[in-house]
Amino acid sequence: MTQTPVLNRPLKIDFVSDVVCPWCAIGLGGLTTALDRLKAEGITAEIAFRPFELNPQMAPEGETITEHVGKKYGSTAEQSAQNRAMITERAALVGFEMNMGEQSRIWNTFDAHRLIHWAGEQGLEAQGRMKAALLKAHFTDNRPLNDPETLIAAAGEAGLDADAARAVLAEGRYAQEVRDEERLWQSRGISSVPAVVVENKWLISGGQPAEVFEQALRQMAAEVAAAPSPA
User: Fold this and answer.
1) Would residue 61 count as lying in a domain?
2) Residue 15 is inside which H or E element, if any?
3) Cα–Cα distance measured from residue 113 to residue 134, given in angstroms and rounded to the nearest whole number
4) How far is CA 185 from CA 14, 111, 199, in A?
5) Which of 13, 60, 89, 108 lies at 20 to 30 Å from 24 by C-alpha?
6) pLDDT digits over 20-60, tens only?
């Protein structure tokens, strides 16, 4: 009987997403759930979070969800409410709490992405905590992402230095780095999120259930493990 090759290193995953994208929160929950299940098989991953702005031209005051989806997708208030209910149910399946109502707002997320990039310089685990804290601030707590204090508080909740986060925001740091990364991923064909890029080779699109991620990552890990080592 042929044994499945063993992967002796973590899979490299780039998670391209936005902080105000509900399917990104769902997709991240599905991905992390799948990875928890795969640990027993020796399959692990290192996840780097990459920036994507769904609404780069969004005004500082943002828009209500109902107003936003009406303008962007032509949805009625009733359709918007039905969609929120469905998304809330899907999020609950991966352990993420959504509390979005018709008056919840969509924000410009550039400053949030600057903090995620800053956190990444302190390690991928720190970056993951920063991303999770911002998703919670927006979707669970309905805190305004246009308020620097919301972003700074999220950094503190992620176990990062709140004063350092305040300086990053005030001094405009990492703006060029975020713009460069956004352009890089767009140049690679990423036009919707979440986009889960594995080993710079495979793409898993959308807020997939944990089972989809689990099956895909198991197959990818097997292919990586079976590939000949570079000479």
Assistant:
1) no
2) strand 11-17
3) 10
4) 10, 18, 14
5) 60
6) 999 999 999 999 999 999 999 999 999 999 999 999 999 98
